[in-house]
Amino acid sequence: MAFQTEYEFELPRGYVDDSGNLHKRGVMRLATAADEILPMKDPRVQQNQSYLTIILLARVITRLGEVKHVDTKTVEKLFTADLAYLQNLYRQINDLESPKLHTTCPKCDHEYEVEVDFLSVTEGLS
After folding, report:
1. Is residue 119 part of a domain?
2. Structural domain total, the chain
């Protein structure tokens, strides 16, 4: 199984371009560290932290229907339902999934999986 770096999506409403064409299907790639760090220097983000979402999505959406280039102006024109959908997709594909360990209860021999949250474990260590 190959490592997946791009994810297809279909917008609930769709992006309407300046010619009135509707674009619903697209592709989002995994974000890089630069995608999250570089926009912090953008004056639009410094003036309004909410604009970070617009820049992030413009960087990671690689295709949206027949739109030649997805940029911040494109993302700004999305319907709010589509923006919320893309924000949720961004979180889903970029969040770290906790590893699972297969274990057995020492008292009853019941086998089960347990998630290991390394970030929470390190909070108590110092």
Report:
1. no
2. 1
